[in-house]
From TrEMBL:
GO terms for biological process: phosphatidic acid biosynthetic process. It comes from the Bacteria. CDD domains: DAGK_IM. It comes from Pseudomonas umsongensis. ATP binds at residues 12, 19, 31, 79, 88-90, 97-98. Keywords: ATP-binding, Cell inner membrane, Cell membrane, Kinase, Lipid biosynthesis, Lipid metabolism, Magnesium, Membrane, Metal-binding, Nucleotide-binding, Phospholipid biosynthesis, Phospholipid metabolism, Transferase, Transmembrane, Transmembrane helix. It is a multi-pass membrane protein. This is Diacylglycerol kinase. GO terms for cellular component: plasma membrane. Mn(2+), Zn(2+), Cd(2+) and Co(2+) support activity to lesser extents. Its cofactor is Mg(2+). Its main location: membrane. It is found in: Cell inner membrane. It catalyses: a 1,2-diacyl-sn-glycerol + ATP = a 1,2-diacyl-sn-glycero-3-phosphate + ADP + H(+).
Length: 120
């Protein structure tokens, strides 16, 4: 067992929930891209309930929107870790940040494609 692991059982779940909320709060307050994606989700997810689509299609419309939030959280985490290690310009740091950005571009493209395929 790792000495870095904390509590077990319900206490662990409560602690993990608190850490997750801290992460969401940090992303919302510190990352403009995350706030923009939240706004996009606030628009698109309720809109999906008013569209003439079946439940599976609606689930897909919602899932791709939430996936973009997940990708942005991971991208922001990578950027924070890279910046914590060093602010020095380094090709590997640039690659890591660029790959995170590319992942977000793919997620946003997926939103556009899935919504277009279902609605058109």
């Amino acid at each position: 067992m790792s000495p870095f692991k904390g509590q077990t059982g319900l206490k662990r779940i409560l602690n993990a929930s608190g850490y997750s909320l801290d992460g969401l709060r940090a992303a919302f307050t510190g990352e403009a891209a995350f706030r923009q994606l939240v706004l996009l989700n606030v628009i698109l997810i309720p809109l999906s309930f008013f569209l003439n689509v079946n439940r599976v299609e609606q689930a897909l419309l919602i899932a791709v929107c939430l996936l973009a939030l997940i990708v942005e959280l991971l991208n922001s985490a990578v950027e924070a870790a890279i910046d914590r290690i060093s602010l020095e310009l380094h090709p590997l740091s640039k690659n890591a940040k660029d790959m995170g950005s590319a992942a977000q571009l793919v997620a946003l493209t997926m939103i556009a494609l899935v919504w277009a395929v279902i609605l058109l």
